[in-house]
Amino acid sequence: MAALREMGPTEMQGREIATFSGAVAQRVALASALAAQSRRPLLDEPFGNVNRLRRADLLARLTTKLAGGQGVIIVTHDPVDVLELGPACC
């Protein structure tokens, strides 16, 4: 639940994932990847299914989370993702 709160989709608790929109599923996937407490979670296209407003919110949340020292591996086709998340990951 802490990871869900960090990424924002707590209103979806208890619902089937098949009922989620693409953006909500993306946020749940990010929360799941970060909750696993891997040394280096893999974020594959972390903002791929979200609109620009939600992207800005997720970027802020992810940057805050990564500022705590947890590194990630980012796979993306968007160089802006790397430029914006990169400094928080190092």
Largest sheet: 2 strands, parallel
Taking the alpha carbons of the first and last residues, their distance comes to: 26 Å
Relative strand content: 5-15%
Please mark out the parts with pLDDT under 50 across 5 or more consecutive residues, or reply none: none
In round numbers, the mean pLDDT is: 76
Choose one word for the global shape.
globular
Question: Element order, helices and strands?
Answer: HHEHEH
Number of helices: 4
Radius of gyration: 12 Å
| Sheet with most strands: strand arrangement | 1-2
> What structural class is derived from the secondary structure elements?
mainly alpha
Number of strands: 2
Helix content: 40-55%
Secondary-structure blueprint:
Blueprint: H1 2-7, H2 22-35, E1 42-44, H3 52-66, E2 73-75, H4 79-89
Notable characteristics:
single chain, two-stranded parallel ribbon, globular
Overview of the molecule:
With 90 residues, the protein is mainly alpha-helical. The protein is 51% helix and 7% strand. The chain contains four helices and two strands; from the N terminus they run ααβαβα. The protein has a two-stranded parallel ribbon with strand order 1-2. α3 links the parallel β1 and β2. α3 runs parallel beside α4. The mean pLDDT is 76.
Summarize the structure.
The chain is mainly alpha-helical and about 90 residues long. Helices cover about 50% and strands about 5% of the residues. The longest helix has 15 residues, at about 50-65.
